[in-house]
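ESCALATION

Customer reports they have been waiting on this structure for their group meeting. Please prioritize. Original submission:
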Amino acid sequence: MIDFAGKNLSGVDFSGVDLTGANFKKTNLSHADLTGANLEDSILIRADLQNAVLRGSCLIQARLQQAMLWKAELGEACLKSCNLKNSNLKMAKLPSANLQKVNANHADLTCADLTEADLCYADFSHALLVNTNQVFQMLFI
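Update from on-call: job pushed to the front of the queue and completed.
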């Protein structure tokens, strides 16, 4: 297993890299480019992904509890069965992202863009959804 736990990888370019099962616990990945990276089954608990670019990345079953994803770009990313419990996704961009079966309990999605995101069976219990885009808000009316 690749182990980057606790490292400062701010601004690193991991675009297109296979990081399946990697350990990024408490790692600083702010401003990192992870476009198209494979992060399936990765551990990103309490990772700092502020302003990171994860467009088209695979995050299936990734563990992102308490992760900082403020202003992260996750358009067309696959986060199926991902654990985002207590994560900060304020102003995150998730257009056309696959969020099927995501656990987003107590996550903060204030001002997040979820336009055309697939939310089937996603759990947003106790999540903050203030000023989240209109398409997402309509699901709860």
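Sent to customer with the following note: The CA atoms of residues 13 and 33 lie 5 Å apart.
Escalation resolved.
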